[in-house]
Amino acid sequence: MLFKLNLITLSMIAMSSPIMAANFAVGNANMESVNTTNYECNRCTTSAGYQGEVAFAVGYNDVDDIHAGNAFGTASNGAIATVSGDIKYQGESGYRANIQAYQLGMDNGFVHLSGGQAGLYKINLDIDSINTYKAGDVQSSLWHNNGLLTPYNSINEFDLNKQREKVGLGFKYGQDFYGMFVKYNQEDKTGYQSSSLVSPNPINFGLPIDSTTQQLDAGLHLLGDNWLTELSYFGSYYENNIDNLSLPYVNDVYSAAPDNQAHQVSLSGQYQLDRTVMNGRIVSGRMIQDENLIQMSGNPLQNWDGQVDTLDGRFALTSMLTNRLRLGGSIDYSKRDNQSSSAEFAQYNFNSLTGAFRQNTPRDLERNTYKVNASYRIASGYRLQTGYDRKEIERTFSDREQTNDDNLWMKFNVRAVDNFNVNLKVEHANRSGSLYEASTLTSSENNSLLRKYYLADRDRNAFELKVIHTPTDWMSLDVTTRYAKDEYDNTKIGLTESEDYGYDVNLNIQFNQYVDGYVYGSQQWINSHQVGSQSFSSADWQDDIEDEFINLGTGLSYSGLMQDSLTLGIDYLFSNSISDTLLYNNVGNANTFSTYGDYYSYNHSASMYADYALSEQMALKLTYRYERYFDTDAANVGVNDIPGMITLGDINHNYNAHQVMLSFTYKLR
């Protein structure tokens, strides 16, 4: 079910609300005891009027693969044009307005309009266009026509891409001790995405996308000298305009994503008592899905009648006990009560009807999270932080009904050394829980020795070291390194070990007042080991999966040319990702192995520009962009490469793309 709202999203929305932050602005300073009668501002000037800039650009795209549109902003081949700008208006009476536009005329761009009275109300309108491209000219021997996938002699070609058009309207009002907001947005998504089904042989096809998501948010807040509270509503409504798909010889072989909606009401607040701050939140919600089900023999339900009731709560406290010691803690509670329909269904065993009946079991989930932490300033420039987190989860009708995650962490920060800032973090985590049962109720078709990685016992050890060094006022160096290892010692079949490590390096240099540059690089390695059983008994095969990611970049800019009118610059980025899988067919004979469907990709991106100032208000900029992209995925094969299988063809990428743009910028004063 495509429920859009969740606890994490709502937490971010609630905690990012303007009323949740203390206001330390100069305008809120206590000036009652200060005599300002004779104060005079000799440098204050009115900023009423228009400010900002607008840019017009024309150019040319040399693109033979639509995937380049992800980097260039448009997949169009040939002439292109775009408009961007940021214009602000401020009136004498406090009225303010703002227009922001980015890449209008391209496949990806946005417009933001806002206006209102400063400190009183604000109205905004947002229009966004977001396109993501996976592959172009995809080949398929199936034609989609009003819900019917029809085999055809000729090859059908289409693009795998998603177009999202989003429109939003918002209103905010606030005065004295109260305020309110209302936001509405609608997103229309169209395009094609890859999908598959088995009927009776594997079939890969382009699944059409045509859906609408509407979201309505509203809230009211009140605040006093040392407290604030907010009552909010969040609603999401999803409608899929694509129905179930059929083949000429059988109906409803592919179920469409069902329409659904979600509603949540949130009450949050914060209170400050001297040097102690307390805040809390309680959220009640309901997610609903009531679409018709595909009818088949043995199905007793006409529609799903799905309903999940949610209850979430949080209480957090932080207190400065002394000028050196700060203590904090929080309690989070989350419950998912599944009230969906249940009935007796006929059971299938490897596509054959067993004659047995079993009732579906709506699963509930309850989560409690406890956190305590302390921060102590040892001396000037030395700070030590430590904390303990515990997460308890109970699941009904699950392989493991209860899991407990414990995490102990420590951070040490040093700022006392000249030109150095050192941050070190170490942590140890452990997961345990109730007896793991591969019962007939939950996983009768799974090996009883199998342990799902998110439920299995696990030990994790990790550390991160970050050093910021500024040896001179014209150079800065940031270095970060990290390592984490997970061990699943009690797992006989499944993921048994995983490690993740890497580094980031950033170097910025200002050679002189005209020339500056940067260099950065990062690498990450993720290695994992898992064991399986082909014979549905003890382990008889294992594999090692090695993933590697590399990102390298550099850039240089030279200003001050032609009497400070011309600036030249260049940027370059290289990224590479490799995934290798080694499969050992016999655990006892590790010398016999084979590779399994490796993945490899790399990307070279370069940009060169010349920015020339015609005057204080006008400028011309010539930009050239280049992208070299290549990837190969063993899972992508030709249309007729595998007998009996219908595929989407080889949709790997191997291309060079170019873009040239000439832009004119005009600054308003």
Automatic annotation (TrEMBL):
Residues 1-21 form the signal peptide. The gene is dmsF. The keyword Membrane applies. Keywords: Cell outer membrane, Membrane, Signal. It comes from Shewanella glacialipiscicola. It is found in: Cell outer membrane. Pfam families: MtrB_PioB (PF11854). Gene3D superfamilies: TonB-dependent receptor, beta-barrel domain (2.40.170.20). The lineage of its organism: Bacteria, Pseudomonadati, Pseudomonadota, Gammaproteobacteria, Alteromonadales. InterPro entries: Beta-barrel_TonB_sf, Decahaem-assoc_OM_MtrB/PioB. The keyword Magnesium does not apply. This is Membrane protein.
